[in-house]
Amino acid sequence: MWAYTVGFTVLPHVGGFLGWFINRKEIPVWYEKLKKPSWCPPRKIFPVAWTVLYTGMGYASYLIWKDLGGCSSKAVIPLGLYGAQLALNWAWPPFFFGAQNLKMALIDILLLDGLAIGTLCSWYPINKIAALLMVPYLGWLAMATCLTICIWKDNPEQKTGKSE
Q: Which of 42, 46, 55, 45 shows the shortest CA–CA distance to 19?
């Protein structure tokens, strides 16, 4: 059973790492030139925060999977919502850093917010601890959404990305 625990806990880190790896060269060059609000966290905080958040949400997904008896029909909606929000989470860095498309990044994170809230709501009746493990993630997403909105508003020349 420990292999499932580790697998579910590590899974969110995979996309997060790939997103960072693929876009790492754009971060110091392009991102540093953007106008950002004064409350924008320092770059060094992001990897630490995402490590904690991905670990919490990954372990929470394991708890839901375990409580619902694996990949059963009861797990389709709770784990489907989780998978969908995780996919949008992983899509945000390529939109933002890779394509430098602030509009797509904004649309992505707004959809992500809705799916993350839906995930938490679907998990709460199943496992309250799993749902509570998602609360820090939702808090960080709220900050990231506000930050994305501010950057989108304050950098009008960057709204549509590299190619346009």
A: 46
